[in-house]
Write a structure and sequence with these properties.
single chain, 7-stranded antiparallel sheet, globular
Length: 307
């Protein structure tokens, strides 16, 4: 797979929420789950699907369906796309949820994309995603600046020692729980599943997948694709939760702005200033004093922010 033109983006609920909003999706957000249990998922209803992040290994990938069965996506009217771009798997997994839930308001751009790819098989849909200027540019707008990347290093064959991570989607579609993984040849059905049953049944499937790994492996992450909590709390008049949600969104926005900035120049200038100041004031002793002063000022600012 070629990943030319697609950058790595951070696995973060705030990143993915702003990404889909930039694409035009309305009233949908992603939330990170801290525990893997049906109750936590049920609390996020209405819940459209989940995105599962895990460390990819050859040994774990050798077992494929976790008890499910492959189904033809066109016959079952499922939006499924094979993964053609390595760095796009997160965005592709999110699209797998969005495109398969009719109640989601995709916006004009994604509505047009979905209509255009109707009837395509997984291979052609994967190629269409990889060639979409809109999806690629939106995806790349959330990548961190990487001024020290060596472009001459060729991709290596992945081994279990490499830190490679993969995203897949689990979605209830027309009464069936589907696993949508772009590295698989087709969607995987995990049996009958209503929206109400989804939290319990998807957790069972996820535990079977986690069981492929050694007990020491803990690098998993689960993101819920759910309705915008701000609208929910506003509609029921829960203004305390609404305020907390607005604060969380403001923090997401701040973090996303900072992610786009390249602070290498600023850090270099600060280091030059510190080194010059240390030399002028007497070496290591002065350096320790500067650190102590910085710690004291940081502590004061923290205390002031809490008052």
């Amino acid at each position: 797979m070629s990943d030319s033109g697609w950058n790595t983006i951070e696995s973060d609920a705030g990143v993915f929420t702003e990404l889909i909003e930039t694409l035009g999706v309305k009233a949908v957000q992603l939330d990170e789950l801290l525990t893997l249990d049906p109750t936590s998922l049920s609390a996020l209803a209405p819940l459209y699907g989940v995105i599962f992040l895990f460390k990819w290994t050859q040994s774990a990938a050798s077992q494929t369906t976790d008890g499910g069965v492959y189904v033809p996506e066109v016959e079952h009217e499922i939006f499924f796309a094979r993964q053609k771009i390595q760095n796009a798997c997160a965005t592709q997994a999110i699209l797998s949820v969005l495109m398969n839930r009719e109640e989601i308001k995709l916006g004009s751009a994604l509505d047009e994309f979905k209509s255009f790819t109707t009837g395509f098989d997984g291979e052609l849909r994967g190629e269409t995603i990889s060639n979409s200027d809109l999806i690629r540019s939106t995806h790349n707008s959330f990548s961190r600046p990487t001024p020290f990347v060596d472009e001459s290093i060729a991709p290596r064959t992945a081994t279990d020692d490499d830190d490679l991570y993969h995203f897949i989607a689990y979605v209830p579609i027309s009464g069936t729980l589907y696993e949508l993984d772009g590295l698989q040849p087709a969607p995987i059905s995990h049996g009958p599943c209503t929206d109400d049953e989804f939290p319990e049944k998807v957790v069972e499937v996820l535990y079977r997948r986690i069981a492929r790994y050694d007990a020491s492996e803990v690098r998993f992450n689960l993101l819920a694709v759910c309705a915008d909590r701000r609208e929910l709390w506003s509609n029921i008049g829960d203004f305390e939760r609404l305020e907390r949600e607005n604060e969380k969104r403001a923090e997401w926005r701040r973090e996303n702005i900072l992610r786009r900035e390249n602070f290498v120049g600023l850090i270099a200038e600060m280091l030059k200033y510190v080194v010059d100041d240390v030399v002028e004031k007497g070496g290591d002793t002065a350096f320790e004093g500067i650190i102590d002063q910085a710690k004291e000022k940081s502590a004061q600012r923290y205390l002031q922010s809490k008052t």
